[in-house]
Structure formats: structure tokens, C-alpha cells
Amino acid sequence: MVESYNEMASITGATRSHYRRFDDWLKCQTEDVLHHKRAEADLAFRRVGITFAVYGNEAGTERLIPFDLIPRIIPAHEWHTLQTGLRQRVEALNKFIHDVYHDQNILRAGVIPADQVLKNAQYRPEMQGVDVPGDIYSHIAGVDVVRAGTGDDGVFYVLEDNLRVPSGVSYMLENRKMMMRLFPELFARNRIAPVEHYPDLLLDSLRAVAPIGVDDPTVVVMTPGIYNSAYFEHAFLAQQMGIELVEGQDLFVEDNLVYMRTTNGPKRVDVIYRRIDDDFLDPLAFRADSTLGVPGLLSVYRAGRVTLANAIGTGVADDKSIYPFVPDMIEFYLGEKPILNNVPTYQCRRPDDLAYTLDNLGELVVKEVHGAGGYGMLIGPASTKAEIEAFRQRLIAKPDGYIAQPTLALSACPTFVEAGIAPRHIDLRPFVLSSGKGVTMVPGGLTRVALTEGSLVVNSSQGGGTKDTWVLEK
């Protein structure tokens, strides 16, 4: 069996050129030193409170996301290709969302079946005809990218687009801070592109999409509260941007404006970076039982007197049933060929694709179209016959709820595990910011690593860890 692409070493075992300086340093480190440094990192993360809530975990809901000491390194030319492809993709996705809620040209042209969009659970008819600043709907996108292939033939693919409330950027920032603290000498030896300015870029992007006529906008981060799995990130980003962290109960609507309760009285809010799903934003418009949202928020939003980032209804573009059509969107809206490829995808709503999937369940990865976090999926090669047969019945009962993809040989990166340094599979989530001023991002993103040997599931909720991501400057 040919091994998957190794980020650090070629098929002959030679260290790839962009890893050579790091490899020279690593060879001088003992396992005792690395164990000590990892313990130091764990202690620091625990003191700061960098935890992740795992719902349904009997051992306790709060835990550290394991941090690996060995970075994922990307050379400048590879990052240039990734960055260009991500900008292209997010630009097309924003145009698609605008089109869906306005003229629906892509549906009229038959590029995407209308029913697949208009009957999608993430389509929000309340957004039809609503104009948003700069026609930007997904202000913050987390696009999951993998390198797949064998030997020295590794190709980048987009695995999924996260356009609603993508998380993980705080771990990207804290991982960099931790590596600089533990190994300052590495940053003297290597020209590593900075990421610490991300909060400034984010705040600039949010301020740039303020309602028309607002020159000095008040921006807030809106959180569901301390029990949310990403609460640390909500608080972290608010603190880094120097803005208020609020819950729904801290806001109210009056005279078709949104206000924040403060010790000095009500203060108008112009831009809300919301980390709450659509359903819970406004109990008058969506779920009446929501205690997390702000009654009347939708009416203010529709009137253009407050900006929500990301916009209501962005989920219609990151649903896994829409994912296969993103390359078509790029050609339709931009007149360009996609720079980054999709993973080949079988749409189980199609009879032929369903038949193929059912015949090959043991070799495929099957995902719920609304699933997230590694839940609701089948990894055929890693599943028992009983698990495959149970999943087969779910698939037959609701084929339009699933897509299937070949099991990719995800690239591997050396990782410091209990047995020493060993390859583990990884992905990458760059964070792409959009505003009326254009599309920007910091070099790199969050590298997630499947810590279990042979596992392809990198999600933090499924026991994955994280690494610092270095993009080398020329």
C-alpha cells in the first residue's frame, strides 16, 4: 500500500525544502524536552481557559483541545495558489447567495435545480429582496482544505465551505502565540508570515459593512452564552478587537434600531458579529421558544439599520447538497475555471448516484447534508459490517439527506504523540474575510490533526487536535 502524501518528507524520505530548517532544529531536540514543552503548553492553555465543550461527553463537557508542537509548514508558492483559489471561491459564493435572494439567475439558467435551493432547510424566504451592505453575506468564511494523494502527488481540494458561524480562529491565534513563547529561536531562524493582526482585519471588515450613513459604527460580538462550545472564542475575539461581548438579553429593539444596555444608558449597535444560528436570532421571526435572540431584530435588519455578520440565510450556500455546484457557480458568476477543486461527490438524491453509493458503502465516506462536526457520517473503510448495514437503511430511507465521496488519502504531518513522532492526517481551515473593500485573509489558518493513528476525522468534537500553521515568506 502506498502511503499518503507526507507534508514534511518526500517518498524517498528526503526532507522537503520548506521543512529543512525546522527538521535540522527538530533533530537536536530530545523527547524529554518535547514532553516538557507540551506539558508547559497544556498548563498555559488551561490557565487561560482555552477549552472546548464536547456535547454528550460522559467524561465531562469541558476539555482542552490537544495542541501539537510540530507545525504544519506551507511554502510561499503553495499559499499563493491557495489564497487565490479561496478568494475566487468566496467571491462566487457571496454572489450566489445574493442571487438566490434576488433575481435567482442561476436557478433560471438551470445550473442548479431550483427545488434544491428553495426547498433547502437553510433557505430563508425572509431574506428575499433584502439588500445587505456591499452585497456581502458571508463576511467570515472558514473553508476546509485538504491535500490528498499518495507518494509525492498531493493535490489540494476544498472539503467544505463554512459560511454561517465558522469557529476555530482563536485557536489559530493562540497556537501561534504558544509556539513563539515555547520556541522563540524557531521564529528567528524562519521567515514565518504573521497572523496576529487577524483581529484588526476582522474589525476593519466588520466596520466596513456598517449600515449606510453610519461613519463610526458600534460593533459587538453576540454569543449564545457560556455554555456554547466556542464561548472561549467569542470572548477572546471581543477582547482582541476591543469591543463588547453581548448576549441577546443585553440588546433590545426600539424605534426600528438595535440598542445595547450599558451602565450609561442605551447605546445604538450598528454591526453584530453574531455567533448564534439563524433559528435563535429573533423569536418573533424564527423559533418562538428562543431565549438567546432579540425580539424584532429581523425587522431592523430588513430595514438596513443594523448589519449582521454573517448574514441571515448564508447556510443555503454551505449545505453539503449545494457543495457539488460551487465549481459551476464560479464559472457562472466569474467566468473562470475553479482554481481549487471539489472532492468528487455523489449526490444520493440522484438514483444513479444512490445506486453506486449503496453498492460501494464500504469504500466511501457518506455525510449528512446538514451534518457538522464529524457527526452523522459513515467512513466506510473504518466501519464494521453492522455499522455499514445500519447506515444503509438510513440512506435508503432518506437519500436526499446524504452525499457520498471517495475516501481520500489525506496528507499526513509529523506529530508528537505518546509513542514519539509519527505521521497523522491533517486538514486546514483558512479564514477568509469579505467586505465592500474586498477579500482578505491572514497567511495560514487552523491546522487540525487526527491524533488517533489511521483516523481521518480531525474535528475537535471527535478528539482531534490542532497545530500552528506556518506560511513561509519568500
Automatic annotation (TrEMBL):
Domain Circularly permuted ATP-grasp type: 71-450
Pfam families xrefs: CP_ATPgrasp_2 (PF14403)
InterPro entries, per database record: ATP-dep_Glu-Cys_Ligase-2, CP_ATPgrasp_2, UCP005522
Domain of life: Bacteria
Name listed for the protein in its UniProt record: Circularly permuted ATP-grasp type 2 domain-containing protein
